[in-house]
Amino acid sequence: xxxxxxxxxxxxxxxxxxxxxxxxxxxxxxxxxxxxxxxxxxxxxxxxxxxxxxxxxxxxxxxxxxxxxxxxxxxxxxxxxxxxxxxxxxxxxxxxxxxxxxxxxxxxxxxxxxxxxxxxxxxxxxxxxxxxxxxxxxxxxxxxxxxxxxxxxxxxxxxxxxxxxxxxxxxxxxxxxxxxxxxxxxxxxxxxxxxxxxxxxxxxxxxxxxxxxxxxxxxxxxxxxxxxxxxxxxxxxxxxxxxxxxxx
Length: 248
Prior knowledge:
Elements: H1 2-12, E1 16-21, H2 28-36, H3 50-53, E2 65-72, H4 99-117, E3 123-126, H5 134-140, E4 145-146, E5 152-153, E6 161-168, H6 187-191, E7 197-199, E8 202-203, H7 209-215, H8 225-231, H9 239-243
Antiparallel strand pairs: 1-2, 2-6, 3-6, 4-5, 7-8
């Protein structure tokens, strides 16, 4: 079944696929610490029921597996007829088509193929809109490891890819988790112009250019005027990813 899923995922247009169990991911304490310390800024939804957010079965009772898929994008973002945002200072992921629509469409096509083999199976499709910790699940599914900049990294694709998940009641043999290959490298941390990466794998959203320009565009940026002006980012930020050796 897993070989079938891998083949159909590739046919649907995904660049990588992995499977993990629907057991909770073991990072609830980290999530609670980040919320309690204020590092999540105004993203209050992350504080709502962390236990459920860590458990895929909260989306689909009886779930047994999570199929994690990755879609790579290039300098111009994800290709599509409708371009989301263009212009200087826009992060790569947002330059092309809206990844929510593209990833969800591909997940739908993949699930349609799976249902041909397992017509009674149930699923919940997630494309960055469901309360699920997709990076932690994808790491456990072997797609990549969470780098020191808190972004998932794949040895071949680097970090230029988006994620999507199918939470299902199908029982599928899980893949082995990915192991970090960052080693002693800290280029992403050193290159962050606002010091948002306060330690390996620790991001303070209150200092993050992506947060300031996407999640909280009306937040006062007085303390970050210089970095924002110097790097001319108007929507998102790619600086830490551009510093990563796996993206070069």
